[in-house]
Amino acid sequence: MTDSAAPCLFRLSFFLFTLQVMNVGRVSATTRFYQFKVQTIRLTRLCQTNEIVTVNGKFPGPAISAQEDDRIVVKVINMTPYNTTIHWHGIKQKLSCWYDGPSYITQCPIQSGQSFTYNFKVAQQKGTFLWHAHFSWLRATVYGPLIVYPKASVPYPFKKPFNEHTILLGEYWLKNVVELEQHVLESGGPPPPADAFTINGQPGPNYNCSSKDVYEIQIVPRKTYLLRLINAGINMETFFTIANHRLTIVEVDGEYTKPYTTERVMLVPGQTMNILVTADQAVGRYSMAMGPYESAKNVEFQNTSAIANFQYIGALPNSVTVPAKLPIFNDNIAVKTVMDGLRSLNAVDVPRNIDAHLFITIGINVNKCNSENPNNKCQGPRKGRLAASMNNISFVEPKISILEAYYKQLEGYFTLDFPTTPEKAYDFVNGAPNDIANDTQAANGTRAIVFEYGSRIQIIFQNTGTLTTENHPIHLHGHSFYVIGYGTGNYDQQTAQFNLEDPPYMNTIGVPVGGWAAIRFVANNPGLWLLHCHFDIHQTWGMSTMFIVKNGKKVQESLPHPPADLPKC
């Protein structure tokens, strides 16, 4: 080989190596295709056989799995008599707002006999998420896990577990949940509690006719397992524990956390949590238990625990199950203790200079009832009608896709005047003065607030006591946020303490009972995004609003055109 040929060969080799690396980069992101047939099946639970809505005939629904940066394509075919949509809870939908899924917000529902294909990328996201219906209360049975694994070359920030299991915590009703929601709305009163809690669709032996309806995990002694916990319930926050075992939290809402070890955890509806559990006890059978966290007063709720088995391989068939001990139903200290332990894995870049400060009250209202049939229509407190609100505005669900109306600049369907501070001022936690007509009545409206692209936002959520205080799970679509602070009582800027170094990065936050929570995020995802309480009954009553993030200056900062098969109202 001549001296002049060597550099040429080196350059060719380097070029081929670079091309190979580029090709590996291209193929590392895969497109995952799924088909969801939304259909009814007959299911027997709690001594009764009922018709429920499912995906692909499964309850809970099928798992979706992908790797970070993969594209997910799901064709949803609606074979039921009900409208439906699917929301991909926790997926930010960067530049894909059209596929977010909340009905009448980013799309019209998929009507009976129609289909719609969701097409989105899980860009720079990994962890445990969930998908669920976002129409009426269908997500009581239409839900499943969405697991995004790290790229093949990226390890976990903890020792790789021996195995993993996904655990879906749910609520089950014997009644048709669409009809149930309609009945609750018509009555003006509170909803009935679920007939059972479930762990992966099974209620466990504490319920009638359920001694064999028990979910079970087979465990190898001395091995460590990753449990992906998902609260898919619709109206209840829940505790979870495993008898005689410690739980180490390593991820919440698809974001790694500093390891935090505890005996029990609490998940709000829509929240996900990854925990490590080591099988370090004597060979036997241990209970996994799910029970209620009910912080509101004078509320009827399901108080029977769902039980599953955490069974060591080698345990005798007649082994006595070691019972799990759950906190009492209103143990606020247990909830706060877990929240206090959540920290981002590393130091994070929390916005310091804030462009928009919002103060949003959240609470339950009692509206006047002017019905000519008060016995059937006025079943709320003081013969009123129950409602819910943010800043005393009770959200009115439109009958058109608000995102489509915004994109096409259609007028008259919503307004841009959502107040950034409450429209009424009073002692939030201790409630308003005595005049119910003035102090617990909410205004109605379909309102939004607009942010410039890249705005740095701070929101103070303040729990109110107009009727009762309770822990409200607030979920923001399209973004995650840093939970920089929280506390009891009324928020006081002078005494509030913020963590700006390593706060947890979440998409659903339980605003403490009778207290407040502070979040910060950057509005860098153009589109229209729902902010709402993840109790379905509170969303039904109006505890929602919308954020509009305007386009940025670049093409990659702009909302794309709507998909051609977007459903019509």
Tell me what the structure shows:
One of its GO terms (cellular component) is apoplast. It is found in: Secreted, Extracellular space, Apoplast. Residues 38-152, 164-315, 418-552 form the Plastocyanin-like domain. The protein has 569 residues and is mainly beta. It folds into three domains: 31-149, Cupredoxins -  blue copper proteins (Immunoglobulin-like, Sandwich), CATH 2.60.40.420; 163-341, Immunoglobulin-like (Sandwich); 356-557, Immunoglobulin-like, CATH 2.60.40. It has seven helices and 33 strands. The N and C termini lie far apart (72 Å). It has helices spanning 5-28, 177-187, 332-340, 374-377, 402-407, 436-439, 536-541; strands at 31-45, 48-55, 64-67, 71-78, 86-89, 115-121, 127-133, 143-149, 163-172, 196-199, 216-219, 224-231, 237-242, 247-252, 255-262, 264-267, 272-278, 285-293, 306-312, 321-322, 356-367, 385-390, 393-395, 443-445, 448-451, 455-463, 472-476, 481-488, 505-506, 508-511, 515-523, 527-533, 544-549.
Can I get a quick summary?
With 569 residues, the chain is mainly beta. The chain folds into three domains: 119 residues, Immunoglobulin-like, CATH 2.60.40; 179 residues, Immunoglobulin-like (Sandwich), CATH 2.60.40.420; 202 residues, Cupredoxins -  blue copper proteins (Immunoglobulin-like), CATH 2.60.40. The chain has seven helices and 33 strands.
